[in-house]
């Protein structure tokens, strides 16, 4: 049954959900609020420092030790740890002194700090732990599945992890079983169902059943796209899966770059060929490295440029620095100027700012002197730099620090006055105050909840204008998600005021108001398409989603360029979150 609401419109996730435009968060412990969209709950928890919620838990520091609390303010892990790391795949590393263990997302210690070192849990449910300089594995219950016996361990690739013992290599599977004994003189990770290994002076490929096929070359690497890098007489080329040469060995090294490009090197310089061996980019570059969205950074004579997924240069190597892409834009610098570049290679410089940070929810933090503000992806200043500090926007709001007293306080050196008048609060993406400036410290919102600190006491803020949808699951790492709306969307175009170029407002609206993040809170570089007047498709990242990993689609509606229908009605509530995962 579809329900219509006056002044707003519902959103339908393709073939699964229809949900209304209203939502209320009920709280029985509300302190007070001057805005009906949030509640504040004071806690009897002392802290010197606080952090954002992650996986439903927030880290806090009391004295020299860290603990964890949940969204209701219940201490789940008392402050007894020297450190607590970020959650990875549902688990976080903890330490006491020099010993390491793990807690789960309920705050339960599943592995007491007892190991010299450890790696984060993989999506496959195993974590490598080290004692006496040897590595073994524990599972999500904290049970030891392989005693520490390996000299080195490597990450899971396609369901198998490479391990080394006594100078020999082998593989374990995702259950912690030894798939191939450590009998190989050398080995590469699995790719496309095969791993290149060396045994008894012969290189070959081993498949996921353990079958070995010898290749008559000095060395080979694991295949990608049906081609095997092969080495003969000190030079690298390519063969097919049967060992037949398709590119004569003539390069110092060879590796894959994206889906269709192959990076090659010779004489200390790098270039690019396609899988047919055709030269795409001449060997004159100091380095070539991926920076997201299928794009790669090229460096030549100390200057940076960008090539696209086909190897075409879209930004000549003339820049001083290029950041990774986020929300389709990368921050760049040139001759002391900050700016940003889109995926087409168009650069906008904003020389009036001393620094620009990565875009988040359509806005980027900017710094001018000691003050902070925000610009949009047109380069327009949408929130003037008037704040003493600011976080990135998350779930439609940003924590900002502001002087609520006289201008002389900031430079007075009077710590009492600074503490009294320079406070943290929250603004929305239009720059309007969402929660007034009353806190000594404030975290970003995550899952509709933020942690704040005042006079060394914690409080929890909950955004009531948020709706959480049921979890979705897919098996295809290149899954295309479709979001259907109950009315046709406003997809008008305008002209840029600076150069009269046509701007598709809907493109910017989708990028600014829909995002995908992984379980670690990191942005996933997806793209969007208005498939028809009431359907938006979320296209997968260039290399697909990772299996056994959780993701969240967040849809926002508190910006200048909101998702609207033809009549100008805006989507409600202001935040909608749709979790999904990609299973094996």
Automatic annotation (TrEMBL):
Pfam families: WG_beta_rep (PF14903)
InterPro entries assigned: WG_beta_rep
SUPFAM superfamilies documented for this protein: Cell wall binding repeat (SSF69360)
PANTHER family linked to this entry: DUF3298 DOMAIN-CONTAINING PROTEIN, GLR2918 PROTEIN
Stated name of the protein: WG repeat-containing protein
Classification of source organism: Bacteria, Bacillati, Bacillota, Clostridia, Eubacteriales
């Amino acid at each position: 049954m579809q329900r219509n609401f006056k002044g707003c419109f519902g959103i339908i996730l393709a073939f699964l959900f229809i949900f209304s435009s209203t939502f209320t968060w009920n709280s029985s412990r509300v302190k007070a609020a001057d805005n009906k969209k949030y509640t504040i709950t004071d806690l009897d928890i002392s802290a010197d420092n606080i952090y954002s919620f992650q996986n439903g838990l927030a880290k806090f520091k009391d004295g020299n030790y860290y603990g964890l609390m949940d969204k209701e303010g219940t201490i789940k892990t008392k402050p007894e740890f020297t450190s607590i790391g970020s959650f990875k795949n549902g688990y976080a590393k903890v330490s006491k002194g020099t010993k390491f263990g793990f807690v789960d997302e309920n705050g339960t210690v599943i592995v007491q700090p007892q190991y010299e070192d450890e790696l984060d849990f993989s999506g496959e449910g195993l974590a490598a732990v080290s004692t006496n300089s040897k590595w073994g594995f524990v599972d999500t219950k904290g049970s030891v599945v392989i005693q520490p016996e390996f000299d080195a361990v490597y990450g899971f690739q396609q369901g198998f992890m490479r391990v080394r013992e006594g100078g020999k290599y082998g593989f374990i599977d995702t259950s912690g079983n030894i798939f191939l004994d450590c009998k190989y003189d050398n080995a590469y990770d699995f790719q496309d169902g095969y791993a290149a290994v060396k045994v008894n002076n012969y290189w070959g490929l081993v498949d996921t059943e353990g079958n070995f096929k010898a290749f008559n070359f000095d060395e080979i690497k694991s295949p990608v796209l049906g081609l095997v890098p092969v080495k003969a007489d000190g030079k690298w080329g390519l063969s097919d899966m049967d060992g037949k040469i398709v590119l004569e060995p003539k390069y110092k090294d060879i590796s894959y770059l994206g889906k269709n490009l192959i990076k090659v090197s010779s004489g200390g310089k790098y270039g690019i060929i396609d899988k047919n061996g055709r030269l795409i980019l001449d060997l004159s570059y100091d380095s070539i490295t991926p920076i997201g969205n299928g794009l790669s950074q090229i460096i030549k004579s100390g200057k940076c440029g960008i090539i696209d997924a086909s190897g075409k240069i879209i930004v000549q190597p003339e820049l001083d620095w290029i950041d990774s892409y986020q929300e389709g834009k990368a921050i760049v610098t040139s001759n002391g100027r900050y700016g940003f570049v889109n995926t087409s290679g168009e650069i906008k410089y904003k020389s009036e700012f001393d620094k620009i940070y990565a875009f988040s929810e359509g806005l980027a933090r900017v710094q001018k002197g000691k003050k902070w503000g925000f610009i949009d992806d047109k380069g327009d200043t949408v929130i003037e730099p008037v704040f003493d500090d600011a976080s990135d926007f998350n779930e439609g709001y940003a924590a900002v620090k502001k002087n609520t007293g006289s201008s002389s306080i900031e430079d007075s050196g009077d710590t009492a006055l600074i503490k009294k008048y320079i406070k943290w609060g929250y603004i929305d993406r239009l720059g309007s105050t969402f929660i007034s400036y009353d806190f000594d410290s404030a975290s970003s919102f995550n899952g509709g909840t933020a942690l704040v600190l005042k006079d060394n006491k914690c409080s929890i803020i909950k955004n009531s204008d948020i709706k959480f949808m049921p979890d979705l699951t897919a098996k295809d790492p290149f899954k295309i998600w479709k979001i259907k709306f109950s009315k046709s969307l406003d997809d008008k175009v305008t002209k840029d005021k600076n150069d009269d170029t046509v701007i598709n407002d809907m493109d910017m609206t989708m990028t600014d108001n829909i995002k995908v993040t992984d379980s670690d809170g990191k942005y996933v570089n997806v793209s969007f398409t208005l498939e028809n007047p009431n359907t938006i498709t979320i296209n997968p990242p260039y290399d697909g989603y990772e299996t056994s990993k959780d993701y969240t689609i967040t849809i926002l509606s508190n910006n200048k360029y909101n998702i609207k229908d033809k009549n100008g009605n805006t989507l409600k509530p202001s935040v909608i979150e749709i979790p999904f995962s990609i299973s094996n």
